[in-house]
Structures are given as structure tokens and as C-alpha cells.
From TrEMBL, chain A:
It comes from Vallitalea longa. One of its GO terms (molecular function) is oxidoreductase activity. Gene3D superfamilies: Nitrogenase MoFe cofactor biosynthesis protein NifE, C-terminal, Nitrogenase molybdenum iron protein domain. It holds the Pfam family Oxidored_nitro. Coiled coil: none annotated. Residues 30-384 form the Nitrogenase/oxidoreductase component domain. The lineage of its organism: Bacteria, Bacillati, Bacillota, Clostridia, Lachnospirales. CDD domains: Oxidoreductase_nitrogenase (cd00316). InterPro entries: Nase/OxRdtase_comp1, NifE-like. This is Nitrogenase/oxidoreductase component 1 domain-containing protein.
Automatic annotation (TrEMBL), chain B:
InterPro entries: Nase/OxRdtase_comp1, NifE-like. Residues 13-260 form the Nitrogenase/oxidoreductase component domain. PANTHER family: NITROGENASE IRON-MOLYBDENUM COFACTOR BIOSYNTHESIS PROTEIN NIFE. Signal peptide: none annotated. Pfam families: Oxidored_nitro. One of its GO terms (molecular function) is oxidoreductase activity. It comes from Vallitalea longa. The gene is nifE2. This is Nitrogenase/oxidoreductase component 1 domain-containing protein. SUPFAM superfamilies: Helical backbone' metal receptor (SSF53807). CDD domains: Oxidoreductase_nitrogenase.
Length: 486, 378
């Protein structure tokens, strides 16, 4: 199934990355998903999705779940007549109706595959409406046949937010954090260090924002970009509003993190030397310890919140050996990292991500020690592969991110580490219970016994379950759901 | 173009995929952008079931769209045939392939001789019909391509169900109650439902059934084909309430020309008492208007509610009680959920039917309590 044409050394451009099979399951998410995900962080932003019943129904569904039924998503569903003759007049009337009835502060219009396919120029339609409606109109195009994943939709949705901003006087020592997609920015190292030096964080986007805070963010004197999808927004804010930005690296590279702190320090006039003294050497010591444990261990890269090649280079530096890297799409900055991997004699197979079905058929043949990313824990357990899921590591910013990744690998935190917030170390009584369970196959018992941490809810479920009950369905259901969430 | 504040009405294509995903061993390939498939697989989670059918996607890029390239679907069919070895391979296009005019029939002709699976083509989306039409088409296709593909079996003590799918809100409990009534009253076993907790082998054996029970109208067209082909009579009545269930059982008995065993009289008496009690209460209400969500088309439900003493209204703000979807049910105390969409709600417990005698009991109780809630909170 895998031939040399899949090797990293043969990848020059994105089209060189092949799918492992022609029939994909489940396939990547589309840009519509990315755009709705990003926009639904902003509580008072109204969305209008234009497309088929299917795209609008599922887009609405997704937003509703994310926002606990409090979403502001409208659907404009195309009918046969619209496909043939266009939908300009109808769309204008719909936008005017939303403007009149809901009076939204801003309306993000999201077009989907069919709208772009029939060549409807929604951008011009919105431009022609700007004087007729009070709401600010934004547009995000999400045709999936022009890209390979949801990332494009995330980038475009973020970029559009710049159009909500109007120039205003700058405030000293006030910054925005761009691209942080999780709750709990206050708990991150970067945030704490900024606050410790009396820096105000005006806006963290896309989380913790509403339209008012987005507008006020213009007063900040610096943007700190913590995730590549926010680069477009940073560029827009630099060009339109003259706000400089620095990139705080996602890469797990101590020197780049040190440099980023120094750059922020230079702009905001802060001496961050103390952080470097405190943390730089500690992280380096952790890396040396991890190397001893992970040397020569092999892995399949599935997905992480990090850039796939940068993450793999980090693991290679720890002495690990990639067998397969599943790649979403080749980014323009990947070349340098790819060359570095090849220079080190690392030449794994590269396949397009989100197609795990064919990969499962060769797990035994490849027999990796680790799988990084979302997969059914049951499937991996059957092949004696240790699952590591690093989603929670992206919630860290700074040197702490590297520490968290190492901890996640060493402690073999799999997909169940994402369930619940309070991880509890396995107690003897839980282990005894697992041992005594009757209708549980050995791989599942091994999986449970090897969990060094377990969410509280799962521990309670295990302790209360009857020893003769079958856990297979329960575990499968959890596994499938977690897998599909990816 | 139609504007929706809530979920739009699901399309024919969605109905096709919902119907097929109720068949455990169905293997489906979609020719379209991958995100459509990923979204639809996740969308099935709202139904709260463990999907065993396999849905693959080919994905499409700009080149495929511009030049109408069919290579991806041909390669995918050959690969899935080789690896999954399904007896039947369902192939469906997408909105994009419909617009650019991909001819899936020509794809089938090109590839059918090269594979062992029988390709079953599903209709293109037509941008005008809803999911019930998609379900109707799928049921007809299953009868034409799967049942007729199999040997005709001698009739025995079986029945089929048509028009009850994973997308029906109370399907687990209603299916359980229907099976109970059919077993207790006619000693018949379920052969297949065609699209719920079933498999392709059971569907192939549908000709052995003595009768087809059509629960919702989308099953009628397939039932007509089965009647013509296998001389199977069918009944299309949804058994709501005592009166509705009695009528349903009588129709089945008449069609089969057998007298049926009556259900436990003590239980029936209690249910009749509860239903009468509810009727008395409704007759005393100042507001006895009931609203049924526009997406629900079921005359039997309307007849049942009318028989209880409700008057139907098209204004959900003037009704005392609403029958609607899970979203409205989450937000309003006077809503009884009867269809999807829904989120964050489990409904797997299978002993709370709306249909049949026990459904009459449970629904009477639910309506009674919902009226109380509506009165307290108003």
C-alpha cells in the first residue's frame, strides 16, 4: 500500500501529498465548519449561511451545540430557481429583513460550495447593500473544492473581523492575543507574565470577545499572534490600523519562545530575562530526561493542534522516529522544517490526513510504539499502540507548552484525557475493579490499566458498574464520539 | 431562496443518507467534497444511535469540478469493492455533481463489470424536495434493487415495517411497541424495517412477510411495489391513541383475514380510563388549542389530538400545547418533542412509546403533565 512515492523526500508541493486510499473516511472538515466554529465564539455576531439545506442544516446544528442553543445563525437555502437564475434579489431582501428585524451589530455572510459554483457574486451584492442596511456586513467564502480542510474557513473568518475595527488612539502597554481558541487565557504563562509587568490584554480572539471588545481592541499597541490561522487578521490590522504584531511560536522550540519574549520585551519595554533564567534551563533539563525515555521509539503522526512537521521535528529531536506523518496540507513555511528532517536522515511516509480506515489495515505491519492524535483507543489498544492526544497542550502559551507536551507523552495521555477536567491518578481500588471485570477483552483491560490518569467521571462509572456487565459498548460509544469530534 | 431562523427542513439527499445509515452493513460512497460527508456523519449523532453503516467520500478539487472528472469515483468504487467486499455498493452524488452534470449511470456502466459488488445508484439532489421524499425514493430503490434481486420466499409468519427510520424521534420505543402488538395479537415476527436496526440480508428476505406495516407515508410507494410484486397487502395508519390502535389492529386483522388475540383487558381498561380523564380535562380548558410543527405531517396524530378534544391552530403562540422538535422542547415548557432536530438529549430508553396502547397511556400522561406545566408557568 505504501510505496516510496509517499516518502517525505518526494514531497515538493501540496499536490504531492497523496491519500492512502481513494475512498476516504471520515474525510476532512470543510471551511464552512471552520468559519462557523470561529464565528460562534463571538456571542453577538449574527451569521447567515447561504447554501443547500444540508450545508445550512449542519452549520446551524454545529453552532447551536457550541452555543448551547443561543446561536444567531440564519440559513438562506438555495432552491432550483436560484441555481439556474441566481439569487441576487432574494438575498438582498433577506439581508434587509434580518437587518430590520434583528438589528444585528454585524452580519457575517458565509457562502458555500454551490453559491461559488454558480458564480453568484455575493461580495458585490453586499457592497451594494452597505448604504441600505445599518448592520456591518462581512463575507466568508467557504467552497471546499478549493482547499483541503476547515483551516481556510478559520483564517477567512478571523481576517474579516478586521473590518469591524475603526482607527482610534493607541493605549500604551495594551496588547491583543490573536488566535487563542480556548477558555482560560488567564491561566497561561504568557498572560500571567504580561499582567505581572502591568500589560493590559485588551482582546483575546476568537475567545473572550464580542463585537464591542473587537472594536476596542484597535487601541492596543501590539498584537501577539499565537496561532497561524490568525496571521491574516494580524496582517489586516497592521495594514489598516497600523498595529504591529509579533508571532509567539506554536513550535516547540525553546529558543524561538525565548526570542518571542525578548521581542515583546523590546516593544513594550519589559525585561523578560528573569523568565529565561527561571524556565529556559528547566525546560531543557526536561527535554534531556524525555530523550532518555523516548529514544528510538517509533510513531505515527495523526493530528495535533501543532504544525505536523514542526511537531515531528520536536519528536525527532527527542530521539523518536516517525513512520507515517498524516498531513492536512502543505504550508508555505513547511519547506525549511521538511529540509531539516531530511538532512537528519528522516524520510517517513507522508499521507493526507483524516483517512484512518486504510491506515488501520497496516498498523500491525508498521507496529509503531505511539500514535499521536485522535483514533479509536480500542483499535489502537488491539495493536498495542500507545495513544497520545495533545489537544490540551495548545491551551498553554510559553515554555509551559513544551513541559505540557513532554508530560502528555511520558504519561501517555490518550483520548480519554479530554473527558472531564479533573484528572485523577488511578487508585488501587479502580485497578482492582478493572482486573475483576468479567466481560472485558484483554486489550481493553490493558488500555484501562495503562491509563496513568483517568477522568473523574470515567472512574466513577467504572467503580459503579457491575463486574459482569459488558463495557465494550460503552467504550466503543465513547471512542466513536471522541473520534468523530475530530 | 428561503430564509430560516431555525434549522431548515432537511433535504432529499439527507433523507437518503439517513435511511441508508439505519442499515447496519450498508456501504455508501459519496462523490463530492469531503466536508459534506464529514458533516453528515457528525449530524447522525443527534439521533443518538451507534451507526454501523460505512460512508466514504471521494473529495473533489477544482480540477474535478472544472473538467467533470470521474476518476475519483471510479477509483473509489474499485477500491471499496476490493477492501470492504460489500454485496451492494450504494453510490450517491452531491449538490456539486448534480450541478456540473456528472452522469453516475455512465460511471456505473464503466465500472460494474470490473467489480463484484452490485452498484446501486441513488438519485441526484434536485434542490426542491425534502427528506421524506429522499426516504421514499430510497425505500423504493431498496425494494427494486435488493428485494427483487433476491429469490422469492414462501410467505411465513413475518411482517415488514416501512416508513420508520433513525430520523424518527421516538423510533426505539415505537418500534418496540409495534413489535409487541404484532407478536401478542397476530403471532407475527418482524422481517425487516428496511432502514432501522436491520441489515441487507433481512431486506433481501422481505418477500417472506405476510403484510407490510407502513408507519409514515414515505413508505407507501415501496409498499405498493411489494404488493404488486409479492401480493403483500399493506396498511398505512399510525396507531395513536386507543381508538387509532384499535383501528390499526382491526385493519391488520382484516387484511390477514385472521381474528386477533386481544391485549390484556385490565391494562386496556386502565389506559382507557386515563385517556377519558385527559379528555375530561381538555374539555374544561379555556384554551384547548394545539399546535403541530409544520414539519410533521401526520393525519393520524391530528385525528388523535382532535379526538382528545384539542383544536388545531397554526399559531404556536396561541396554543396551550405544542408538538414540535427538540430545539423548541428545550426552550419552552409546553412543548412535547415529536421530531428532530435535537441536541444534547438522550432518547434511547425504549419503553416510552407514543404509538400503540402503551403509547396511548404514555402520551396521555405526557400531555396531561405538559398542560399542567403550561398552566403553572403562564
Amino acid at each position: 500500500m505504501l510505496s516510496d512515492e509517499y516518502r517525505l523526500s518526494n514531497i515538493v508541493e501540496d499536490k504531492d501529498i497523496k491519500t492512502l486510499s481513494k475512498a476516504q473516511f471520515p474525510g476532512p472538515h470543510c471551511p464552512l465548519f471552520g468559519a462557523v466554529m470561529t464565528a460562534s465564539y463571538i456571542e453577538d455576531l449574527t451569521l447567515l449561511i447561504i447554501g443547500t439545506e444540508e450545508c445550512t442544516y449542519y452549520g446551524k446544528d454545529f453552532a447551536m451545540i457550541r452555543q448551547n442553543g443561543k446561536d444567531r445563525v440564519y440559513s438562506a437555502v438555495l432552491e432550483q430557481h436560484d441555481i439556474t437564475f441566481g439569487c441576487e434579489e432574494d438575498l438582498k431582501n433577506i439581508i434587509k429583513e434580518i437587518d430590520r428585524k434583528e438589528k444585528p451589530k454585524a452580519l457575517m455572510v458565509i457562502t458555500t460550495c454551490v453559491v461559488e459554483l454558480i458564480g453568484e457574486d455575493v461580495e458585490s451584492i453586499l457592497r451594494s447593500l452597505r448604504k441600505e442596511v445599518d448592520t456591518k456586513l462581512l463575507i466568508v467564502k467557504t467552497e471546499h473544492f478549493k482547499c483541503n480542510s476547515h483551516i481556510d474557513g478559520v483564517k477567512k473568518a478571523l481576517e474579516q473581523l478586521a473590518s469591524l475595527m475603526i482607527p482610534m488612539e493607541k493605549k500604551e502597554r495594551t496588547v491583543n492575543i490573536l488566535g487563542f481558541k480556548y477558555l482560560g487565557i488567564e491561566k497561561t504563562e504568557l498572560y500571567k507574565e504580561l499582567r505581572r509587568n502591568n500589560v493590559d490584554i485588551s482582546m483575546t480572539i476568537p475567545t473572550k470577545v464580542n463585537i464591542e471588545s473587537i472594536q476596542k481592541a484597535v487601541a492596543s499597541s501590539l498584537n501577539i499572534v499565537v496561532e497561524p490561522t490568525a496571521m491574516g487578521l494580524a496582517e489586516e490590522m497592521k495594514n489598516q490600523l497600523d498595529i504591529p504584531y509579533i508571532v509567539f511560536p506554536m513550535a516547540l522550540d525553546v529558543d524561538k519562545i525565548k526570542d518571542a519574549y525578548e521581542q515583546i520585551g523590546d516593544i513594550l519595554d519589559i525585561d523578560f530575562d528573569y523568565i529565561v533564567k527561571e524556565k529556559y534551563n528547566t525546560v531543557n533539563d526536561n527535554l534531556i530526561t524525555a530523550k532518555q525515555y523516548l529514544r528510538d521509539k517509533t510513531f505515527i503522526y495523526g493530528n495535533t493542534p501543532f504544525n505536523c512537521f514542526e511537531f515531528c521535528l520536536f519528536l525527532v529531536e527527542l530521539g523518536m522516529v516517525p513512520i507515517i506523518i498524516q498531513c492536512r496540507e502543505l504550508m508555505k513555511d513547511d519547506r525549511k522544517v521538511i529540509d531539516e528532517l531530511i538532512d537528519r536522515g528522516i524520510d517517513p511516509y507522508i499521507v493526507r490526513m483524516a483517512n484512518i480506515a486504510p491506515l488501520r489495515r497496516i498498523y500491525d505491519e508498521l507496529s509503531p510504539n505511539y500514535y499521536f492524535g485522535h483514533e479509536s483507543p480500542m483499535t489502537l489498544a488491539k495493536h498495542n499502540i500507545i495513544q497520545v492526544v495533545t489537544d490540551n497542550c495548545a491551551k498553554k502559551l510559553g515554555f509551559e507548552k513544551i513541559t505540557e507536551v513532554i508530560d502528555t507523552i511520558i504519561n501517555e495521555k490518550g483520548i480519554f484525557s479530554l473527558m472531564g477536567g479533573d484528572n485523577i491518578v488511578l487508585e488501587d481500588k479502580v485497578k482492582d475493579k478493572i482486573k475483576n471485570l468479567k466481560n472485558v477483552p484483554k486489550p481493553m483491560k490493558d488500555l484501562l490499566m495503562n491509563m496513568k490518569e483517568m477522568p473523574q467521571g470515567m472512574k466513577e462509572a467504572l467503580l459503579t458498574v457491575d463486574e459482569k456487565d459488558s463495557l465494550i459498548d460503552m467504550m466503543k460509544s465513547h471512542g466513536n464520539r471522541m473520534e468523530r469530534r475530530h | 431562496m428561503k430564509l430560516y431562523r431555525d434549522n431548515p427542513i432537511a433535504s432529499d439527499r439527507m433523507g437518503i443518507l439517513w435511511a441508508l445509515n439505519g442499515i447496519e452493513d450498508a456501504v455508501i460512497i459519496e462523490f463530492g467534497p469531503a466536508g459534506t460527508t464529514h458533516f453528515s456523519i457528525e449530524g447522525l449523532m443527534q439521533f443518538g444511535i451507534d451507526i454501523k453503516a460505512k460512508t466514504f467520500t471521494t473529495h473533489m478539487d477544482e480540477h474535478d469540478v472544472t473538467f467533470g472528472n470521474e476518476d475519483r469515483i471510479i477509483d473509489a468504487i474499485i477500491e471499496v469493492d476490493l477492501i470492504e467486499k460489500p454485496k451492494y455498493l450504494f453510490v450517491i452524488g452531491s449538490s456539486i455533481t448534480s450541478i456540473i452534470g456528472i452522469d453516475l449511470e455512465s460511471v456505473r456502466l464503466q465500472v460494474q463489470d470490473k467489480i463484484r459488488s452490485k452498484i446501486i445508484l441513488l438519485p441526484d439532489c434536485d434542490f426542491q424536495n425534502d427528506y421524506r421524499y429522499g426516504v421514499e425514493m430510497t425505500l423504493k430503490i431498496l425494494v427494486d434493487e435488493v428485494v427483487k434481486n433476491a429469490p422469492v420466499l414462501e410467505k411465513s409468519q413475518y411482517y415488514n415495517i416501512l416508513g420508520l427510520g433513525i430520523y424518527d424521534y421516538n423510533r426505539s420505543s415505537d418500534l418496540y411497541e409495534i413489535r409487541r402488538l404484532m407478536k401478542d395479537n397476530f403471532s407475527l415476527e418482524l422481517a425487516t424495517t428496511f432502514m432501522l436496526d436491520t441489515n441487507l440480508e433481512s431486506i433481501e428476505q422481505a418477500s417472506r412477510a405476510m403484510i407490510n406495516i407502513v408507519i409514515h407515508e414515505e413508505g407507501i410507494a415501496a409498499a405498493e411495489i411489494l404488493r404488486e410484486q409479492y401480493n403483500q397487502p399493506y396498511i398505512c395508519v399510525t396507531p395513536y391513541g386507543i381508538k387509532g390502535t384499535k383501528k390499526w389492529l382491526k385493519c391488520i386483522g382484516d387484511l390477514l383475514n385472521i381474528s386477533y388475540n386481544s391485549t390484556d383487558n385490565n391494562e386496556l381498561e386502565l389506559i382507557a380510563y386515563k385517556e377519558s380523564d385527559l379528555k375530561r380535562r381538555i374539555s374544561k380548558l379555556d384554551n384547548n388549542r394545539v399546535y403541530i410543527n409544520n414539519n410533521i405531517h401526520n393525519k393520524c396524530l391530528e385525528d388523535y389530538l382532535s379526538d382528545l378534544g384539542f383544536k388545531k391552530t397554526n399559531d404556536n403562540k396561541k396554543s396551550i400545547i405544542n408538538f414540535s422538535d427538540g430545539i423548541e422542547a428545550l426552550k419552552k415548557p409546553n412543548v412535547i418533542q415529536i421530531n428532530y432536530p435535537s441536541f444534547g438529549q438522550e432518547n434511547g430508553y425504549q419503553y416510552t412509546p407514543y404509538m400503540g396502547y402503551r403509547g396511548a397511556h404514555y402520551l396521555a400522561q405526557k400531555i396531561y403533565n405538559t398542560i399542567t406545566k403550561a398552566e403553572v408557568l403562564n
